[in-house]
User: What shape does this take?
Amino acid sequence: MSINIIVLGAGFGGLEASTGLKRELGKDVSVTLVDKKDYFMTGFNKYDILFGREADIRKGYYRDLVGQGVDFLQEEVVSLELEEKRVVTDKRALSYDYLIVALGADLHPEAIPGFVSGGYEFYSPEGARRLRPVIEAFQGGTILISIFDKVYKCPPAPYELAFLLDDYFRAKGMRERVNLKVLTPVPRPLPVSPTASDEIERLLAECNIELLTQRRVIELDSEHQRAIVEGHSPLAYDLFIGIPIHKPPKVILDSPLGAAGWVAVDRENLHTSIDNVYAVGDVTSIPVGGFAVPKAGVFAENAARVVVQDLASRIRNRPAASRYEARGACFVEFGRGRIAMLDADFLSQAQPQVVLKDIPSELSPKTTFVAERLQRWFGYG
Assistant: This one.
């Protein structure tokens, strides 16, 4: 009789875990992946939506996972009955032998008063689609890009948006009519990496994009188009783009896994405090000195590989094969055709190591990145 493994969430971590387990353990395991969506696309595709290239996005459709031996259920998880080793969705109850939680982080635009009515976000496909015509129709004025909190997915993304907007308005011949500002509640763009922060700050200044550090927007006065900044004077804007507050999914907060908010895990093997339950990706919090492992797909993918090996070791009664090192590389677009990678190693050394490396744009690195994952997870050619 095969061992029953349920994976919750079909992002980078969930896809890597579910398909990896079938590759590693084959018929010894039954793997069921649960997600409320019906397709996967990478987070950086939000720029394709925002700048009118949505038709070019390559997606992975979860129905095609059957070819990888993974059962997929398009359902929403409503509760975790961990003592009974059971997951309840909006359609059924599912029992498991092992559970892998990869439910990500939820966006809460309503957490900032006035933001829903007075601002825009681009972190969700729906938000990017709503913002696109606003950018296209923008005739000039001040654009504020605000990071509300230090915990959010894809740390370089707000700066990428600023660089890409700079490119966009230059191409339209109206850059001199647009005042771009980025607000962050922390002292540097990427506090974990002084060298990467230096380069981002240099390029922001070169592009005439104002960086306002240690500025936390706590409310929008949409009637007067002012951002209320904690401890500072309000800032006027013509267009406000914010990075919504991120929180763990409600189903996590309502379970023992969410006792501290984000799910705590063993940093070596991603075990949680609950027997036979792992957690990977954005839903977790893994402290590293004064920092934490970033919320980004590549780190979820790296964690999922470790979980696959750890589970295989447990099921086959052999020593653990690997430990989580939080290694990964994230793309950073600087506009003007320049693309780089933030190459990070958070756990294998005493301090996090993060290095910015340029990539020749003619290599189409994002296209290759997507194609490799669609082939590995979905079997697409």
